[in-house]
Each structure stands twice: as C-alpha cells, then as structure tokens.
Amino acid sequence: MTTARRPAWRHVSVSAVVAGLVAVAISYVGPLLVVLGAAQRAGLDPAQTASWVWAISVGSGIVCVAMSLVTRQPVVVAWSVPGAALLITTLGGYDYPAAIGAFIVTGLLTIVLGATGWFGRLLQALPRPIMAGVLAGVLLPFVLDAAGASAEAPVVAGGLVLAYFIGRRLVPRYAVLVALAVGAGLALATGSTTAPQLSANLTMPLWTAPVFDLQAIMGISIPLLIVTMAGQNGPGLAMMHSNGYAANDRLLLGAAGASSVLFAPFGAHSINLAAITAGICCGREAHEDPARRYVAGISCGVFFVAFGFAGQNIVELLGAVPEQLVTAAAGVALIGALQGALTDVVKPAGSGGRRGPAGLEAGVVTLAVTASGLTVADIAAPFWGFLAGALVYLILSFTSRRSARRA
Predict the structure, then answer these.
(1) 147-160 mean pLDDT
(2) Does 33 map to a domain?
(3) Beta partners for 273?
(4) Which residue in 207, 300, 377, 396 has the most C-beta neighbors within 10 A?
C-alpha cells in the first residue's frame, strides 16, 4: 500500500505516534532485558553494555525512519530477540572482539540473502500458512500472558484490558492510548509504581575493533543468522503481508543487514525486521487508513533513537511500573495482529498461497511448535516451528502427489 507523496507531517496522527511509542516501550521492557542478560552472562562491563543498547536502538531507529519514508509503509526493525537469547549461552565462550567480528559476518550474510532475493524466493516457495503459523505462534503467548497478568493484578492489568475493549467500542483509533492511560492511572492510584533512579548522563557508543575468528563465526554467526532469518525476518515480512503491505524484501533486509554491519563495532548483534512490535504499527490501532500507518514506523524510529541516548533512564522508568501492566498492554496491542495471523493460518483451500490440506496442517503444526516455546541446542522456538511446518508440508505434499499418480 502506498499513498500520495504528500509531506509526512500532513499524515501525522496521535494514534500513529502512540503506536510507535508503545512498540518501542514493549521492545525495551521485554527484548532489551534479554540483551542485558546476555551482556551480564558474557561479563561485559557497563560501558560495553551501554554501547550495545545504544547501537541496537539507534541502528534500528535510523532504518525505521528511512525505510518508512521511502516506502510509505510502516517499516519496523529492531534487534534479534531469539538471537540475544542464543547469545546468553554462547557469547561468553568467545573474546568480545571476536564476537563483534561474528556480528559483522551475520550482517553481511543478511545483506546477501536479502539483496539477492534468495530469502524472499524461499518464503514464496513455502505455503503462506507456515509463515503465518510462525507469526501466530510468536504472538499468541503475549496475548495469553495478558490474561495471566489480569489475574495477578486485576485492578491494574484487568482495568487496562477492560479499558481497551471499551475504547475499541467508543474510540477504536485510540483504544491502546485509552488503555495505557487508564492502566497508568490505576497503577498510581494503587501505589504499584516505584521511584526510578534517573541519571543526567547520556548513553554513548564505544568502538570495539573486530577480530574475525573462524570458530566464533561458526559458533555465533551461523546460528544467529538462522534464528534471526526464521524467527524475525520471516515473521516480520509475514506481518506486513498479512496487513496488506507489499513489502520489498530485498530493500528491507538489505537495509537491516547494512545497519547491522555499521553498528556491530559498537555492540549491535543483529538488526532485523520486527514481528511482534510491527503488529502494533501495521495494524488498525495505528490508524484506520492503512496508507497513513507509515507514520507509526517513523514514530517508532524517532523514539528508538531518542531512547538509545537515554537508554539507562528508559530502563529505569519502565522498571518503575508494574510488570503486569506492561504485559497486559503488550497483549491488547497485539490482538489485531494475532487475529490477522490466525486468519492466514486457517483460510480455506482455494484462497491462494498453497492453502490446500497439506498447507493448512503444516501451518497448524508450525503454530503449535512455535507457541510451545521449545528450545533445542540454544535455538529458539520460531526456528523449530518453521522447520517442523516445512517438514510436514514436504511429507504430506510428497505422499499426496504419489497417491494422485497411482490413481
């Protein structure tokens, strides 16, 4: 989807700006904690950790702004969450400069897979329900967690969820904003917040000269590339497609890979298309008019850059609010995206995208494995869900073709 090339400021809306802010807030509350866990496990000092936060934030923000303006689509990129989870167990086994070199190699390989169109052709060769199953499996736990958060904190989290649905009925464009305002008010009223310890110092980057070590490349680059492409870039493209955007995979993956290479010496492990937070900016909560949702991508990028320089303070601020409030906010913000992904999984045969019985069953298997949270060999569930779905599709397609020939 595109819109006339009018100045972007003419398309600015409160709902789109809020969508970008919510997407960044969710990225800092959950995914950033995975990065901090990896940094702590690897024994990085505070300056290296702060530089890592700066690099993934600023690198992501620049791509968000640039690609959203160029394509007039809500392009949201962020750092690889499954990649950071992988690094929790692997990063400490290598010297930090060697890890930086491995990050650069991952970015270069991403550029190759994206710019050549090889990854896009792979996605086109698979039934659409498989990638939709990965996406739905990634999103479903967040929505389910909102129910758990409401049970744990019925006043704060439950009130936020109720406010969201009332907002969907009365002011659908601002339902998430209404929910956040009500949730924050309830948190203050119940004394659930704590006083954050803020600092006047900005987060600054720290350059680390890369060392290209074959062992680090094999131990970090290849696994990181696999989980990022299957667990982030694939679902990220699926998210845009499910919302009606003809995403240019060569351009977007090439830009994300280039940003990864440029910001790797400052600590960025991998910058890629977002799936979870992209659902907030691509969906109806950003704007009822899909052609004006690209402003949410720009907003997301601006907040990423700003938060990158104030990363430590943002972490403190987000840590001051109840965890259940953030969990509930993420859940309601992703309901629309989950609905679209589930629809793509179960659409009947004949509606395009290789949606025969084999594709449908493969999509359901993909969803189940991905949502299970399965982790094998330190590789996260989205990769195994993708692999399981593809394997099921190949088996069922092969047997059905053999049966047809015999008949």
Answers:
(1) 91
(2) yes
(3) 77
(4) 300
